[in-house]
Amino acid sequence: MAPPILHLRDIDLTFGGTPLLEGAELAVMRGDRLCLVGRNGSGKSTLLKIAGGLIDPDKGEIFVQPGATVRYLAQEPDLSGHATTLDYVEDGLAPGDDPYRAQYLLDVLGLTGQETPGHLSGGEARRAALARALAPKPDILLLDEPTNHLDLPAIAWLEQELKSMSSAIVMISHDRRFLENLSRATLWLDRGQVKRLEQGFAAFEEWRDELLEQESTARHKLDRKIAAETHWLIHGVSARRKRNQRRLGNLMDMRQQKRELRQVTGEVKLAAAQSETSGKLVIDAEDITKAYGERTLIDGFSTRILRGDRVGIIGPNGAGKTTLLNILTGQAAPDTGKVKVGVSVEMVTLDQKRESLNPRTSLSDALTDGSGDTISVGGEPRHVISYMKDFLFLPEQAPTPIGELSGGERGRLMLARALARPSNLLVLDEPTNDLDLETLDLLQEMIADYEGAVLLVSHDRDFIDRVVTSTVAWEGEGQWREYPGGYSDMLAQRGEAPLRDKPKKDKGAAKNAAPSSTGAPKEKRKLSFKDSHALKILPDRMAKLEEEIAGHKKVLSDPNLFAKNATRFTDTAAALTKAEAKLATLEEEWLALEMKREEIEGG
Fold this sequence. Notes:
Mean pLDDT is 81; it is low at 237-243 and 501-524. The chain is globular. It has helices spanning 44-51, 85-90, 101-108, 122-134, 152-164, 176-182, 204-235, 241-260, 321-328, 363-368, 384-390, 407-419, 437-449, 461-467, 487-494, 509-513, 529-556, 561-564, 566-602, and strands at 6-13, 21-28, 33-37, 59-64, 70-73, 140-144, 168-172, 185-190, 193-197, 281-292, 295-306, 310-314, 336-341, 347-350, 374-377, 380-383, 425-429, 453-457, 470-476, 479-484. Strands 5-6-7-3-8-9 form a six-stranded mixed beta sheet, sandwiched between helices. Strand 6 (140-144), helix 5 (152-164) and strand 7 form a beta-alpha-beta unit. It folds into four domains: 6-69 and 138-206, P-loop containing nucleotide triphosphate hydrolases (Rossmann fold, 3-Layer(aba) Sandwich), CATH 3.40.50; 271-346 and 425-514, P-loop containing nucleotide triphosphate hydrolases (Rossmann fold); 357-421, no CATH class; 529-602, Helix Hairpins (Orthogonal Bundle), CATH 1.10.287. Helix content is 40%, strand content 20%. Helix 7 (204-235) runs antiparallel to helix 8 (241-260) and helix 17 (529-556) packs antiparallel against helix 19 (566-602). The chain is an alpha/beta fold and 603 residues long.
């Protein structure tokens, strides 16, 4: 077997307190596709920086095969010292590298090469850094969150570019779909050590849960053994003193072993502070348009958003997603058309700029707005340290300046600030940036439990699929269309490539591209009389079933019903089960017909 081209052995690193890395290993073979996963703050970026030669460990060996080239993409790149972005990318080329590749990559990533580094946004700086990392086609690519600030077409392009390269790749990303599509092996950094799975990310979570279950069982056995030995120590016979001393020594060793066990980091506790329930109608937009000069961003878009809806908005950078979001929420006015925001709507926004807090502000002051040690969460006072723990911050981090937090920690801070405010409409603009996978899972669960409406802008395909009930997608030339379901559902209904960078020549192209269920040309298709009639009567039938279900639940809410009348209890419970099953069937039938109707009308 060929030796690794990069090998980190027995790596230790401590920044005060608990070691960040403790005996960590990383071996990279030619052509490897490795994803590095772990909690925010577990040391993933630090391990990648050690591999890239940017940080020296306290202890350990680092081997890079002579002549092998390594390129590292940082989360927060430094472009200082370069006149333009093209200069910055070209500076990373070595003799013999293709000089034209630098400009090609900048063009693909939406930059001209003439931008001044000091005037770039965070997203533009990261795209320039990505071009610099890819340009030389190195032997080893170390990528830290490469999809951050990329839109869906750029992410699709990046996936294909990386697949075509011969470089070995080690990548950190919160984008599950990206990891599933590219990785062939998974490295899990957990409590300072790296465990390796010889399968891609798709198999990781099941494997991780099995390891944690085995660890929990082993810890439980150790606890039982310690308890038994302690009981013997207190109540056992004192004869055979030498044997007793040996058992006492063994007990001390087990207690020391337990003390040295590094516990699994706790879970983030996400819960949005909810205000009074809004009316059923949250947002009603009718035929809205918006143009800047000769460029039309929105051309005749209509939608109705009800309480409980989760609406995703997707499109390339510059398509007008944030403009559409601002118009729907009443923060900007359309040129034509009407937008009505429902009564009692209280909105909380988490924007992609993360509210640009002063980097010298402490973590606790950022949560309390500098007003002491108490934060109002949903109108109720909580001690700031207690609230910090819900988001995996340690008490000793309270005075830490925001500028010293990692990207993931700043993301959790902004979530903590946003979720403390009472709301019944959540507006989330790129909420997944820099969050670890476990936090994304919990954010997904929080959104599912949220009683209000949610508007979400994201380029994370997997997150959209898991969260939204409908997807508003850019169709080109100011056209936006709403599809039932998530990103994958939208693709299935479109029957075409996900999104396009360039405006379409034909505004109806996307709508006409989706094939009919029979594969025949869609000429004057329409719903049958039976389907049309079902669409008219199903809502009333579902409403009656909902009333019936509510009545059954009210009867069963009597805690003494079974004792008073067992027969009525049994009959009511059976009727409730039957009504709920029937309602589920009707809802599925209605959704299928509604999707069919929208497909036909869209065509």
